[in-house]
């Protein structure tokens, strides 16, 4: 059986891998390890989420915690509530973009600081699997808080450009994938100059129309078709807990999230000249080039929200983006939010007055493979062989192996959970991309789906 304890969250099949009794132990262990008194609790729309949230309440109150229950929420709403209500920690019941039968927990500390495997999930897992901690002398209490209106005001604070430049309501197709975005959008985007063309915005934890993962091209097919058919300015797809999103241009083209990072960086640097922007190392080199052109300082970081957030906090970075569709904002407690990204992106479109395809066109000046997975017997040995074979390039080991040449570069990273390596490769032209990929393919073998 696979481990449910991941690099950045806890996630597994219900009830085979995660049942109510284990959820009680995990929540109690979370409270015990972090030594917290007040915990915000939220849950997504999955069929099993209400029961797991009840188990989490039991575990937290068993440890004497005051539980601030915000009910159905997106993960970014949980982060916002944890920080704005000055709670000691937050616990979100969600499995993000996983299949309907999965569920789990995302965790954060005070001020929505992340909890990762090395600094919390591992010891929490050990405590939970050993039976959980002893109960506190006195049980805690639960109070319910409606965070919706406060979050709407917060999201609206990022809509200055949209409010100031939109001459008419912007026609936008929003694909919620039947996840939590659909529950949050009616309140969060109320009264903004947006004409929403809804697509799968009805929350349904069975995800009947397509899996809530916008990084899979097949899941974007309906959105792309609807954008073109409706003559919309842009389409936006959300994942299950609405902490990620992907943008579609008016021609139905998918905008890579690294290029979306470059566009959003320009917008934030316009009001924070000389600011720092963080991006993950899988991103196109166009990102760093555009940040520098806009007068900002580009900072390359490891993949994963705990690394991105820590670096943002340390450098007081104004903005950050990942290839996975996570976008982070200094004025959002250094956290990711798909709805903040939505209003910020619509604002830059309103300010530019240009269609997205034209705005993004100059950024599409390189050729990329996207992330390609290969199953290998020994990932560590594979990375060592790659370092030897490409020893004539400029190499670094910030996150896996990155090797750069004059006209192309690649990054090869291990999966956290499977015997896989993940390849991202970029080149100045198609022949160089194809030739470089073929060289790596000789060593890595045939790519697998996913």
List keywords for this structure.
6-stranded mixed sheet, 4 domains, 6-stranded antiparallel sheet, 450 residues, alpha/beta
- The CATH superfamily of the largest domain bears the name Alpha-D-Glucose-1,6-Bisphosphate, subunit A, domain 3
Individual helix count? 15
Quaternary form: single chain
The beta-strand count equals 22
Gap between N and C termini:
20 Å
Q: Give the tally of structural domains.
A: 4
Major sheet: 6 strands, mixed
> How much strand?
15-25%
Order of strands across the main sheet: 1-5-4-2-3-6
Structural class: alpha/beta
Shape: globular
Mean pLDDT: 96
At CATH level 2, the architecture of the largest domain is 3-Layer(aba) Sandwich
What does this structure look like?
- Helix content is 37%, strand content 23%.
- The protein is α/β, with parallel strands linked by helices.
- It has a six-stranded mixed beta sheet with strand order 1-5-4-2-3-6, with helices on both faces. Strands 17, 18, 19, 20, 21 and 22 form a six-stranded antiparallel beta sheet that branches. A five-stranded mixed beta sheet has the order 8-7-9-10-11, sandwiched between helices.
- Strand 14 (319-321) and strand 15 form a beta hairpin.
- Helix 1 (20-34) crosses helix 2, helix 1 (20-34) packs across helix 4 and helix 9 (257-271) packs parallel to helix 10 (285-293).
- The longest helix has 15 residues, at 20-34.
- The relative contact order is 0.10.
- The model has no long low-confidence stretch (mean pLDDT 96).
């Amino acid at each position: 059986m696979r481990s449910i304890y991941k690099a950045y969250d806890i996630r597994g099949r219900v009830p085979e891998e995660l049942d109510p009794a284990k959820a009680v132990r995990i929540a109690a262990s979370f409270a015990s390890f972090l030594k917290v008194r007040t915990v915000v609790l939220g849950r997504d729309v999955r069929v099993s989420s209400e029961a797991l949230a009840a188990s989490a309440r039991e575990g937290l109150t068993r440890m004497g915690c005051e539980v601030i229950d915000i009910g159905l929420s997106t993960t970014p709403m949980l982060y916002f509530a944890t920080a704005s209500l000055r709670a000691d920690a937050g616990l979100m019941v969600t499995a993000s973009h996983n299949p309907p039968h999965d569920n789990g927990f995302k965790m954060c500390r005070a001020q929505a600081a992340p909890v990762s495997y090395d600094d919390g999930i591992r010891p929490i897992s050990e405590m939970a699997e050993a039976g959980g901690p002893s109960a506190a002398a006195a049980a805690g209490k639960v109070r319910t808080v409606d965070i919706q209106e406060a979050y709407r005001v917060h999201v609206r604070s990022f809509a200055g450009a949209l409010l100031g430049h939109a001459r008419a309501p912007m026609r936008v197709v929003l694909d919620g994938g039947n996840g939590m975005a659909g529950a949050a959008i009616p309140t969060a985007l109320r009264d903004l100059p947006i004409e929403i063309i809804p697509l799968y915005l009805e929350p349904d934890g069975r995800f009947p129309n397509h899996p809530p993962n916008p990084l899979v091209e097949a899941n974007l097919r309906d959105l792309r078709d609807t954008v073109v058919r409706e003559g919309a300015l842009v389409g936006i797809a959300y994942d299950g807990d609405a902490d990620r999103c992907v943008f579609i241009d008016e021609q139905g083209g998918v905008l890579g999230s690294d290029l979306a990072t470059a566009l959003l960086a320009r917008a934030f640097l316009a009001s924070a000249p000389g600011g720092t922007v963080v991006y993950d190392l899988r991103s196109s080199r166009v990102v760093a080039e555009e940040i520098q052109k806009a007068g900002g300082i580009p900072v390359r970081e490891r993949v994963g929200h705990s690394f991105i957030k820590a670096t943002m906090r340390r450098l007081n970075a104004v903005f950050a983006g990942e290839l996975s569709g996570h976008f982070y904002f200094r004025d959002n407690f250094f956290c990711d939010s798909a709805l903040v990204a939505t209003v910020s992106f619509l604002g830059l479109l309103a300010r530019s007055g240009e269609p997205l395809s034209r705005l993004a066109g100059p950024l599409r000046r390189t050729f990329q493979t996207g992330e390609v997975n290969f199953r290998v017997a020994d990932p560590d040995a594979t990375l060592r062989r790659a370092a030897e074979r490409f020893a004539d390039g400029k190499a670094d080991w910030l996150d896996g192996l990155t090797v750069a040449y004059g006209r192309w570069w690649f990054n090869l990273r291990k999966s956290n959970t499977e015997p896989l390596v993940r390849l991202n490769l970029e080149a100045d032209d198609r022949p160089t991309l194809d030739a470089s990929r073929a060289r790596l393919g000789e060593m890595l073998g045939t790519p697998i789906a996913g």
